[in-house]
Write a structure and sequence with these properties.
The chain is of the alpha+beta class and about 725 residues long. Helix content is about 40%, strand content about 20%. The protein is built from 21 helices and 25 strands. Strands 13, 14, 15, 16, 17, 18, 19 and 20 form an 8-stranded mixed β-sheet that branches. The chain has a 5-stranded antiparallel β-sheet with strand order 2-3-4-10-7. A 5-stranded mixed β-sheet has the order 21-23-22-24-25, with helices on both faces.
Length: about 725
């Protein structure tokens, strides 16, 4: 049965619930002080009351109340797993819990002291509510003439809208409590007194803050700026408006820290877009150091509320905190080992193989090479990690492999790969390695120490490997970008150790090294063959660059490559001759000028490089497109990819762009969506973060009624895709 029908029934139930509560809620009914209230038809005396979805009872914080005091009682909810109730602003659907009190004359019940709610995502909606056990404290004013030794009967008709992802049920329970009156300071009630006290003290109250709302922020956002000394240490924040329609609840709330407070970029809700409020907006400001009720007045942004770095997304932080740091470090180490098998790293294996062959029968030199390679890898990982975390702190939406989203970096790497390939081909000799191996004169030996060569090989390995994310590595990196700097750096370094470990082990193991053939002329031939993967990598990077810019940019880059080759040829034949030295200078200058002209051309329009359709037609990804396809009853497979991600391209050729896969999509009536991250795209970066990832590839499969997607493995097979589509179209009760 389609899951759309139960969801529609839930909405209808919510509307009926709102209608009945409007009529039912009135002033508390008064009875003479000290007299019992006759139980109604639903009143079975004090104690818990239950439905299949929720158990509730009225419980006191203290063992007794004193005359003239304010006693605290609470509605204790024990909600069944998979169900939830709602906060004062339920969000995009649902309804808040209401209490209609009946008490003796002179006894007055105050409003609910609402705990901080959970954010509950439902498809494209966001609700605010509670699950599990929750206490809703209520202050009760006790009259001064209450007599010690008596009890005050309290009765409330509690109306809960209890929902799960498929339906909502209005549950009405009559809860009663006989509250004793006594003398002296009362102790906490032994059953739930401490829990109620915790709920009361942790509930948000007014803080000493100044808050402003400023429209016309970035991308049409409304900027909420708040200053106050309590916010100095906050690193995460979220604003819950008291009234629905003012803020778009499902949208992210990126923000910044400041010297005196913080600021959040809020997406206006439907009510705001129709009629922007002319007065203040009230709500709950949650942070990781506390929560407070605030009133934001219209006006310019407050000074000191931004400029000290980005706030961390609470959703991403929660995803990262689910695994302990040692586990994340282990995942990073394993991911680095697996990274050696990913397509991105293949060109670097050529340089590794050449270096290993050189030191095959020189154990001391081999050890130095291995340690230098490890140092190059670790230093480069540390630098990349530092840049990535610094950009995140400055509020930039970036992820792993971010350097290849920059056309200048892509162009520079393409030329660098060409230069290394020409060196291996013998066109010129930075280090004269091939000549030395061929037995040429010592005067032509390496001008660059072998340790430095190994270090630079480690640097290049990281730069080229960074676009890939391997299994285990994705989870670790997704958590790393949400953690503090030192734990995040530990994860990045563990990843580098995993990448360098196989080479390090071989270089430190003489028994393995002795099995390699002795150096000789054959190594010159080997180097010539090992140049081929580097040329292919240069072509691939040039193709990525062309996709990031345009045809003119690609032609300029080709001219830069030709000039670079001529300059390096002159370097190889210079021999101190002025003509060749001049040719070298001219070629390098011309190459640099053309490369700069190519790299500074405008990027491809639309923030994406443009995805090419194949056998399986694709549509552009957006959250709205996913929601619309689900509303139409169609499953969705989303492919977050980039042209610079070789693993992505291998998966697309091997598993997605195949006739059998296209037929499976047609049979399932499924939609194939592509999120192209070749160029920087903030919505894609946020979606990756929401699923605990910092890079591509990421494959998500949504069933027609799914709130959250199924995440597919990073190495795809046609069978895995077909099985995921079949599972997405199956009846919910039959899913794996």
């Amino acid at each position: 049965m389609s899951r759309a029908l139960p969801f529609l029934i839930s909405l209808i139930a919510a509307v009926l619930w709102l209608a009945t509560t409007t009529a039912a809620i009135g002033q508390p009914v008064s009875t003479p002080l000290g007299r019992s209230v006759a139980p109604g038809s639903q009143d079975a005396g004090p104690g818990p009351k239950s439905t299949p979805r929720i158990t509730a009872e009225l419980v006191p914080m203290s063992r007794w109340a004193t005359p003239g005091s304010t006693a605290i009682v609470a509605v204790r909810q024990n909600i069944e797993p998979g169900w939830h109730t709602y906060w004062r602003n339920p969000g995009d659907s649902g309804g808040a819990t209401t209490l209609a009190w009946t008490a003796p004359r002179g006894v007055e019940a105050g409003g609910i002291v609402w705990p901080v709610p959970e954010r509950q995502r439902l498809q494209s909606l966001m609700n605010f509510g509670y699950s599990g056990e929750v206490f809703l404290p209520v202050p009760i004013e006790i009259p001064a003439d209450a007599r010690p030794g008596t009890t005050i009967p309290l009765r409330t008709e509690a109306l809960f809208l209890v929902c799960n992802p498929e339906m909502c049920v209005p549950d009405e329970l009559v809860l009663t409590l006989d509250l004793p009156i006594g003398d002296g300071a009362p102790p906490l009630d032994p059953r739930h007194g401490a829990d109620i006290q915790t709920a009361l003290t942790s509930a948000p109250g007014p803080g000493d803050f100044e808050a402003r709302l400023t429209p016309d922020g970035p991308n049409g956002a409304v900027v909420l700026s708040v200053v106050g000394s309590e916010l100095a240490e906050a690193t995460q924040a979220w604003f819950f408006p008291f009234q629905g329609g003012q803020v778009d609840h499902p949208s992210s709330q990126p923000g910044e820290r400041g010297e005196r407070g913080l600021s959040l970029n809020l997406t206006p809700g439907g009510g705001w877009r129709i009629a922007p409020p002319s007065g203040p907006i009230q709500g709950l400001l949650w942070t990781d150091v506390g929560a407070w009720e605030i009133t934001a007045q219209p006006g310019p942004p407050l000074p000191g509320a931004s400029g000290s770095g980005a706030l961390t997304d609470p959703d991403a932080a929660a995803a990262g905190s689910t695994l302990a740091l040692p586990m994340l470090i282990a995942f990073a180490l394993i991911g680095g080992l697996i990274l050696n098998l990913m397509p991105c790293v293949f060109p670097v294996l050529a340089m590794k193989a050449a270096s290993l062959a050189k030191g095959a029968h020189e154990p001391a030199a081999a050890r130095r090479d291995g340690l230098a390679f490890l140092l190059g890898v670790l230093v480069t990982f540390a630098i990349l990690a530092g840049v990535l975390l610094a950009l995140r702190a400055a509020g930039q939406s970036v992820g792993w492999g971010f350097q290849l989203q920059s056309p200048p970096v892509t162009a520079a790497l393409a030329l660098l790969m060409l230069a290394v390939g020409l060196n291996l081909s013998g066109l010129y000799h930075v280090g004269g390695g091939a000549q030395a191996l061929a037995g040429e004169a010592e005067s032509k030996a390496s001008t660059l120490p072998r340790g430095a060569q190994s270090f630079l090989t480690g640097v290049l390995a990281v730069v080229v490997a960074a676009p890939c994310t391997a299994p285990f590595m994705a989870v670790a990196l997704g958590a790393a970008v949400t953690l503090p700097a030192l734990p995040a750096l530990a994860i990045f370094l563990a990843l580098g150790l995993g990448l360098a470990l196989p080479y390090l082990i071989v270089s430190l193991t003489p028994a393995i090294m002795r099995r390699l053939p002795r150096p000789g002329p054959w190594m010159v031939t080997l180097q010539r063959w090992l140049a081929i993967p580097l040329y292919l990598t240069a072509l691939w990077l040039a193709w990525v660059f062309a996709r990031q810019t345009d045809t003119t940019g690609a032609l300029l880059l080709a001219g830069a490559a030709a000039a670079l080759a001529l300059g390096l040829f002159a370097l190889g034949r210079a021999g101190g001759r002025p003509v060749m030295v001049g040719g070298l200078a001219l070629g390098l200058a011309l190459s640099g000028g053309l490369a700069w002209a190519a790299a500074t051309r405008p990027a491809a329009p639309g923030g994406q490089a443009g995805y090419e359709e194949g056998v399986l037609p694709a549509v552009a990804w957006s959250p709205e497109a996913v929601s619309q396809a689900q509303a139409d009853g169609r499953p969705v497979l989303v492919n977050f990819t980039a042209d610079w991600c070789l693993t992505c391209k291998v998966n697309e050729r091997a598993a997605l762009q195949r006739r059998a896969t296209a037929e499976a999509f047609e049979e399932a009536n499924a939609v194939y969506m592509v999120g192209d991250w070749t160029l920087r795209d903030a919505p894609i970066a946020r979606e990756l973060e929401r699923h605990g990832r910092s890079g591509v590839p990421l494959y998500l499969v949504y069933g027609p009624g799914d709130d959250e997607p199924r995440i597919l493995p990073q190495i795809l097979t046609p069978g895995a895709v077909t099985a995921a589509l079949a599972d997405a179209t199956a009846d919910p009760g039959a899913r794996s």
